[in-house]
Design brief:
Elements lengths: L1 E3 L14 H15 L6 E4 L7 H6 L4 H25 L4 E5 L8 E2 L2 H9 L3 E5 L9 H11 L5 E5 L4 E2 L11 E2 L1 E3 H6 L7 H9 L4 E5 L5 H6 L6 E4 L1
Parallel strand pairs: 1-2, 1-6, 2-5, 3-4, 3-5, 6-10, 9-11
Antiparallel strand pairs: 7-8, 10-11
Helix pairs in contact: 1-3, 5-7
């Protein structure tokens, strides 16, 4: 399971999609897919609309969250177009029914897509408000029998504080689920970490900005943090 934020698709822009960045990430995914690895993805929607920020500005939380889910579908379709442009068969699977643009989520059908070496992009979160795409990624990873969640970020792992603000920030090579929760390290939200812990699903945090980073980690190279029990 590859989980990336919507902001990762913005590139240097402040909003929306940056097609060259989407293409670069698609090439990273293809390089791993070419190894024969079964891949599924969850992409956030924060580059278009974030439910929490809408709620903070006075919008009803459930409505704001549904708008955020629709944003994730837009990002998923953009990634699908980029991957299929590279010759990688891809299915967008939505937790909210919109049959003209995506398949509805049916677990056994999604598993079959993976067996046929198609990349599955799970969109619209869990289909429920009050749950983030981090939780959706952990839920789908468990349902699909994934061996790990790869969380692609702008930094090369988990730090004890923000490395962009503090020069003395320390990076962890490994950290436990309980430490992530107790120290509020911000890897994923608490419900996602708890779900991963309960099912012993490791989380690998790495930088999406490092070329070849995703493939390199699978080959035992690169810099990353492993969150596990």
């Amino acid at each position: 399971m590859l989980k990336i934020s919507g902001e990762a698709l913005m590139g240097d822009q402040g909003f929306g999609l940056h097609p060259p960045t989407v293409q670069r990430i698609a090439r990273e995914v293809k390089s791993v897919h070419d190894l024969g690895v079964e891949i599924c993805m969850v992409i956030g929607g924060g580059n278009i609309f974030r439910g929490l920020s809408g709620s903070a500005q006075g919008m009803e939380r459930a409505t704001a969250d549904y708008m955020g889910m629709l944003a994730t579908v837009m990002n998923a379709l953009a990634m699908q177009a980029a991957l299929e442009g590279l010759g990688v068969f891809t299915r967008v699977i939505s937790a909210i029914r919109m049959d003209e643009v995506a398949e509805p989520y049916i677990r056994r059908r999604a598993v079959r897509h993976l067996e046929k070496k198609r990349v599955c992009i799970f969109a619209a979160g869990t289909g429920n408000p009050y749950f983030t795409t981090d939780t959706a990624a952990t839920l789908r990873a468990n349902e699909m029998g994934c061996e790990a969640i790869f969380k692609g970020t702008k930094v090369d792992g988990v730090y004890d504080k923000d490395p962009a603000k503090f020069d003395d920030a320390k990076r962890y090579d490994e950290v436990s689920y309980d430490d992530v929760l107790a120290k509020r390290l911000g890897v994923m939200d608490a419900s996602a970490i708890a779900l991963a812990r309960d099912n012993n699903l490791p989380i690998i945090v790495f930088s999406l900005d490092e070329p070849g980073g995703f493939r390199g980690i699978l080959a035992g190279r690169g810099t990353y943090t492993k969150v596990h029990g």
